Amino acid sequence: MSEVTSSLIEFLSEATTPFHAVSAIVKRLSAAGFTPWDEASGDAPAVGSKHYWIKNGSTVIAFTAGRDSADAGIRLVGAHTDSPNLAVKPNPNLLKGGCNQLSVDVYGGVLLNPWFDRDLSLAGRVTYLSDNGSVDSCLIDFRRAIAVIPSLAIHLDREANKSRSINPQTDLPPVLSLADGDDAFDLSALLSEQIALEHPDLAIDKILDWELSFYDSQMPAVTGLRSDFVSSARLDNLLSCFAGMEALLASADNGEWNILVANDHEEVGSASAVGAQGPMLNELLDALANDDTSNRALRRNSWMMSVDNAHAIHPNYSAKHDDHHAPLLGGGPVIKINRNQRYATTGEGSGRVKLLAERVGIESQAFVMRADLACGSTIGPITATETGIDTTDIGVPTLAMHSIRELAAAKDVSALMALLTGFYNRVV
Asked: Kind and range of the H or E element at 409?
């Protein structure tokens, strides 16, 4: 296993929710000398300084302050911290068939079938009233299998292999334990116990609320006969967060203005205070160039890579691709193109990425959706619209996107990191 792959697997294992993803990113940034940015101060960052800005615990923007004025242009890499999942409802406790269950809500475009018969764990953020009267939050992660969604046996559904529909309200509540008499399961009590284990110094009066999601407890792994692949939950889009973070760290001392944006809520449209449609990035750009002329120059001279996973050609479903725009696993980063602006890539942006790939010594590929299929989108068009910055959509080819366990080629991770490092270093 290469050092890059090993580091990616460690990162994915830590980043079980957007909150944990931001925590994992900040831990690595802090170790490299990045410090918190005080957005309220109004002070311009010192030349050569390195900062990060967290909001809601689920979005982080990191940047290096260059030696020249910011209006000379900034290189930005954008990704997102969230992934489709099953989120726990506010009043979730269920007692059915002698089992304790939790009701869940579907977050994002989840491929539901693979969630059945998987060993599930639970993680997220808990908000509580402390014993001093303040309202605070902390992160928890059970990091063990505590639940499962059992399939209905084939004997009770003979048509399951022909047509299986899933009702998210009734078919998805995970089973946590055998019931203890007629008393319903108390999630608040369980969370209090978990907080005591993970944060023994916290003094909690009561649990107020939670933002929790189930996840696959199986560890990320290198798979394949020749160890060609990385199999993991949340490759979309934590792989891009990882690559962007590593590229920023590798280029942190190059004397240039570089930014990494890792937004939450991409999977549900990006319309939130911490999503790509929110104000965070514009607030930072306005602070870096605080007069109108400089601000316009900054946006005119900057370039952003919107990095999100791309659809690799599936060997069993090749007809779902345009034959001439079907990226291969292991074929290098993908330039994502859609003339209806579901991706932000222009001809000039595509050409510059091709040249960049050539100069850093990697292959690149192109993806265009079949004309008779609807195309997904990314933070690219949204960020370009909100900021006016030229944006190009790229990503690593992936199979099983939005499944509980996705698949990418290990060599593509290193290639993406090389591309983004070259991007930050102004190779093109």
From this structure: strand 406-409
Task: Look up residue 99 and give its amino acid.
Answer: C
- H-run or E-run covering 413: helix 410-424
Query: For residue 96, which amino acid is it?
Result: K
From the CA atom positions of the chain, what is the Rg in Å? 22
Nearest to 9 by CA among 24, 30, 27, 23: 24
pLDDT band for position 40 (50/70/90)? confident
Domains and CATH numbers, the chain: 3-83+233-424 (3.40.630.10), 85-216 (2.30.250.10)
List, in order, residues 6 or more apart from 56 with CB less than 8 Å away. Answer: 264, 273, 274
Phi, psi of 369 (to 5 degrees): -65, 145
Q: How far apart are CA 293 and CA 290, in angstroms?
A: 9
- Alpha-helical runs (H) found in 226-375: 235-250, 280-288, 292-301, 347-360
- The kind and range of the H/E element at 18 are helix 18-31
Sheet strands (E) in 66-119: 75-80, 85-96, 99-107
Q: Kindly state the tokens that stand for 203.
A: 């003094």
* Residues 123-132: tens digit of each pLDDT: 999 999 999 9
Cβ neighbours for 288, distance < 8 A, ≥ 6 positions apart: 44, 45, 70, 74, 257, 298
What single-letter amino acid sits at 147?
A
181 pLDDT tier (thresholds 50, 70, 90) = confident
Global pTM reads: 0.97
Q: How confident is the model at residue 44 (pLDDT cuts 50, 70, 90)?
A: confident
Instruction: Report the pLDDT value the prediction gives residue 26, as an integer from 0 to 100.
Output: 98
220: DSSP letter: P
